[in-house]
Amino acid sequence: MITMTEIARLTGVSQPTVSRVLNGNPNVGQEIRERVLACAKEHNYQCNALAKGLQGSKTMLLGVLVTDISNGFFADLAKAIEAAARKAGYTIILFNSDCDLEKERSYLDVVSRYRVDGVLVVPVKENGEELPDFAASLDIPVVAITKPAAALDAVYVDHRSAGALVAEHLAERGYRRFLFIGEEYDRKYLGFREKLAERGLAERTGSVAYESDRQLIHFLETWLRRPGGRTAVFAGNDIFALRTLSALRMLEVSVPRQAGVIGFDDTSTGRYLRPALSSVSQPIAAMAGEAVSRLLWRIDHPRAEEILDLALPAELVVRESA
Q1: pLDDT at residue 56 above 70?
Q2: Does 47 score more than 70 pLDDT?
Q3: 3-state DSSP call for residue 66?
């Protein structure tokens, strides 16, 4: 790869002049500018973004930290973030925390050493606890995406309202026993249970966080034996929903006649199942666009005190499973 020093030698100008041309400084004569740019293009000169960062200039790099890249939702989100960043002239560097708080901290520290201009983070913790304090120590702008985070700009879907939307739909469809697959602190479950409580169905609602498919099958088998009417399962994400559908097939439970299932994220896989999976759809492109836009604004306004807390609406996509 050609360097600025080699371009200077080939064009007969000084290395500082080459640097000014390649960094867009207007105080260079037109003839020299054209000569330097032609040489750089001919030899496929690539800007060293890290070196620019060390010099204090923008690197035009954004860090992106997601919790589970194996989940189709986060793969789609990363793709949408990349598209939004690219429109603004930025490139992204992607990291995966694997839902591990220590990895989240470690990767945020790593990404800051890459001298990125800013970072988009999917928080590991449900309410983004601890993230603001750690982000403050990085000295680069951080925006949370998909979950709120106190004292940080955040763009997300209101999971509590989405959970209530699912509860409303299932209750109206005649289901009378309700099971959430996921953690009880999940905002989706809180909204789900609150709405069911309003209808006098709180005592018919439960949750399970399982560690293996065998555990899930056992729990579903036990739950379905209880009296009280048809069961509806609300899964915290589409991966949990797909595993639930598989478990119900093994138990020879008919979906949706004997049990209904609704997922969360509306990833593409669920649309092609039989029965096709009902799921909550998040506005991925809008969320990515708003988050990138806010991060770029924060890069240009690092001392602004105004905090963005933008909750976008979700949509329940009803298919065959519920």
Answers
A1: no
A2: no
A3: strand
What Å distances lie between residue 285 and 70, 77, 156, 311, CA to CA? Answer: 19, 7, 12, 14
Q: Residue 281's Cα: distance from chain center in Å?
A: 13
Round to whole Å and give the CA distance between 300 and 83.
20
Residue type, 59: T
Distance CA 109, CA 57 (A): 20
The HSE-up count of residue 153 (CA atoms within 13 Å, CB side) is 25
d(C-alpha 243, C-alpha 241), whole Å: 5
What six digits make up the tokens of 232? Answer: 């509806």
Edge-to-edge order in the sheet of strand 153-157 = 91-96, 61-66, 118-121, 142-145, 153-157, 309-312
Each residue's pLDDT tens digit, 83-137: 999 999 999 999 999 999 899 988 888 887 777 899 999 999 877 667 877 787 7
Pairing of strands 315-317, 278-281: antiparallel
Residue 159 and residue 170: Cα distance in Å, rounded?
17
How far is CA 314 from each of CA 159, 160, 215, 272, rounded to the nearest angstrom?
A: 8, 10, 30, 21
- CB-count exposure of residue 303 (10 Å: 0-12, 13-18, 19+): exposed
**Kind plus residue range of the DSSP H or E element containing 262:** strand 259-264
**What whole-number distance in Å separates Cα of residue 143 and Cα of residue 300?**
14
Q: Look at residues 21, 22, 288, 301 and name the one whose alpha carbon lies nearest to residue 157.
A: 288
Give me the half-sphere count of Cα atoms (radius 13 Å) on the Cβ side of residue 74: 23
When mean pLDDT is compared over 17-26, 207-216, 257-266, the highest value belongs to: 257-266
Peptide bond into 275 cis (omega under 30): yes
- pLDDT score for 253: 94
